[in-house]
Amino acid sequence: VIVETPPSITGVHETVVYGSELAALTAFYEDALRLRRVSTMGDLGVALRLADGGVLLLFDPAKASGPGRDVPSHGATGPGHVAFTIPAGSYDVWLGTLRRRGVEIEDEIAWERGGRSIYVRDPAGNSVELVDGPIWRE
Amino acid sequence: VIVETPPSITGVHETVVYGSELAALTAFYEDALRLRRVSTMGDLGVALRLADGGVLLLFDPAKASGPGRDVPSHGATGPGHVAFTIPAGSYDVWLGTLRRRGVEIEDEIAWERGGRSIYVRDPAGNSVELVDGPIWRE
Predict the structure, then answer these.
(1) Which B-chain residues 73-132 have CB contacts (< 8 A) with chain A?
(2) pLDDT tens-digit profile of A10-41?
(3) CA gyration radius for chain B?
(4) Which of A11, A34, A100, B46 is the most exposed place for a label (fewest CB within 10 A)?
(5) CB of B130 within 8 A of CB of B81?
């Protein structure tokens, strides 16, 4: 028997953010973060496309965790976290845009080894970070 | 006042998976999914690097949600979900590898519009999907 080693996973394809108020949640990611919706799954959730081809899923955890779905169920509660990459040098423009929209800036961090992060909350209380520059070094 | 439109978010930089049994959780992602650890943050969590530069964070929600962290706190409970992209055509190799490791295959889906998914659970009960081919169409 020849046992083949699988090729490395390429990257994360879908990241999920949960929130029970889907309309407000979707408006935040579409309007404030300017992500593009590619699918609406009834009252279960929506799928948003990132520029690199990745997908951000917004799910109502009560619906996503229910039985009878076509896929394995899931659904977390409590504040989650997602960090997005913004183009290099766009930190100040993003900071200004968020402030003009009335999005509270919870924190800003200039990392010791380079890179900066803006932290806000989405309407469900998830911690959303915008990252300018590499912040995880080997 | 010139209001500059921010350039589009590039992609997801950090995706989080939560689990209180960090050692078992880390072993699953390192050994079964062969992701590479780049940082260990005490008993808070670990950071794993994806081939495309993205980062998967494994966090103990009890620690990540606590006060006194250097960054805004978060921490969800209940089963979350993450989907990974695997190289085109590696579906069968990944399926065989997971089975040989004793990882239960919860579901397999051949999507109507193309692409296939393998669904397993990590030790914390999160739904983990391996995706071969494009499954979200515009």
Answers:
(1) 73-87, 90, 93-94, 96-97, 100, 106-107, 109, 117, 119, 121, 126-127, 129-131
(2) 999 999 999 999 999 999 999 999 999 999 99
(3) 17
(4) A100
(5) no
Residue A33 burial by CB count (10 A; 0-12/13-18/19+): exposed, middle or buried? buried
- Scanning every residue of chain A, which has its alpha carbon at the shortest distance from the alpha carbon of B62? A78
Residue pLDDT, tens place only, A72-91 = 999 999 999 999 999 999 99
Which amino acid does the sequence have at A68?
G
* Better-predicted residue by pLDDT, A71 or A138: A71
Backbone angles phi, psi at B23, to 5 degrees: -65, -45
pTM, entire model: 0.95
Do B83 and B129 contact (CB within 8 A), yes or no?
yes
Integer angstrom CA distances of residue A46 from A29, A135, B28, B88, B123? 11, 29, 29, 25, 27
What kind and span of H or E run contains A104?
none
Q: Which residues of B touch A73 (CB under 8 A)?
A: 79, 127
Closest CA to B128 of B138, B115, B119, B136: B119
CA angle B77, B79, B83 (to 5 degrees): 125
Inter-chain CB proximity A76 and B79 less than 8 Å: yes
Compute the C-alpha angle B131/A47/A13, nearest 5°.
30
Task: Among B12, B77, B126, select the one facing A15 at the smallest CB separation.
Answer: B12
Task: Classify the complex by whether its ipTM is higher than 0.85, answering yes or no.
Answer: yes
Report the share of chain A in percent with pLDDT over 70. Answer: 99
